[in-house]
Amino acid sequence: MSGISLTPLAITILGLLSERPMHPYEMYQLASVRRNDQLAKIKPGSLYHTVSRLEKQELLISIGTDREGNRPERTTYEITSAGRAALEHQIREMLAVPVREYPRLPLALAEMHNLTAATACAMLRTRIELLGKAIAELEADRGSMTAEEKPRIFTVGTDYVHAITVAERDWLEALVHDIEGGEMPWLSQELLDRMASTAMPVTQTKD
Question: Which of 1, 34, 147, 168 fits as disulfide partner to 85, beta carbons 3.0 to 4.6 Å?
Answer without folding.
Answer: 1
